[in-house]
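Quick start: what a row looks like.
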Amino acid sequence: MTQIPRPALLLGLAGLIPFYWGALTSVAPGLAAWGTEMLGPRFVGPYVQVFYGAVILSFMSGVLWGFAAKGHGWPGYALSVLPALWAFFTTGGGADRAALALVAGFLGLLALDWHFWKTGAAPDWWMRLRILLTTGVVIALSVDLIA
């Protein structure tokens, strides 16, 4: 496997910031109060994680769509829209339920990443990056489930 390109790695890791900000503000009431005052209630705790998680699953559907465009036909395109549909249909119903749905969604996305990687549609380094980022997301979302 080749090395993860630096821009993909750095931007991917930066993409974890809202998940960890949400986790921190879920367990630190003082930080949550400061964040609410400075940014608004939508940008702290599980609220930022759920909203951002749904956005990222939708974004990743677009990435998978690009992989499907490499000649995977109907099955590839159908698989590529699953993360966005999952986010749309499962992130309502409260923070705990949404966090659990997002954990399942990101784990399912990892399976789709593996499928497209295994078929040669994704770059050689893809799974190294996706395992790293998925692990980070799942850990951050799990804070809401245990907090």
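That is the whole record. Helices lie at 6-14, 17-27, 29-39, 45-68, 73-80, 82-90, 95-118, 126-146. Residues 45-68 form the longest helix (24 residues).
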